[in-house]
Amino acid sequence: MDKNTQRAATVASTKGFLLCLGVLCLAGVVVWFGYLQIFTKGLERLPATMCGGTLERDTVIDILPPAKSAHESSRQSDYGSHYTRYSCFINTSKSALSSTTEVRSITKEAWLKNYAEDTTGVPVVRASAAGIEAVAPLRSHGSEAAVLVPCVPPGQKASSSTTYAVVTQVTVDDNTRKSGMELRQDLTDFAYRLAQHTYDLAQCQDPREFPTTLPRYEAK
Prior knowledge:
The protein contains five helices and nine strands, in the order H-E-E-H-E-E-E-H-H-E-E-E-E-H. The chain has helices spanning 3-39, 57-63, 108-114, 117-120, 180-201; strands spanning 49-50, 55-56, 70-79, 83-92, 96-105, 124-129, 132-137, 143-151, 164-172.
């Protein structure tokens, strides 16, 4: 084999190798892209807003880990003349974010006592504004936030001795992207928006100015 023939064979072999390498790289990119779309993009396929417009998809993506599938469901129920309940759930193949808010006969003092550190043994952070209360227990497993908004239900007089409130609870399991105070603050902000939504659904009679946001928690 002369030098020209040998050189041509070498060039052809190199081109063939590079072509095969390019095909393999392209196939790898396609497989990886397909994997991402099928197994990690479940949250991206959720509606842009959920839970009656109180929860944005980007917030869920910030809180929950990537998952193959994700589903949102919500339900409103009215029972009796003074009671409204609104529930919303985000369930994925890896985690779950749950919320329930309802009008209940309860005083602010009694509600706060349920979360008091001296009765539960669990440290709690608290924020309040305009008569609205928010708490977040500092548990070692799972995260929770709760909000209370005083409410006078339809047919009830403001001067009545029975006190009502919209109480909201949001929980998420241990499998989250965020943690600590940052996570509890996000859960509280969601609970606050959900409480406002249910306040309107329940047609609470007392005029109320809702602050844009509640005060931020301080590290404890």
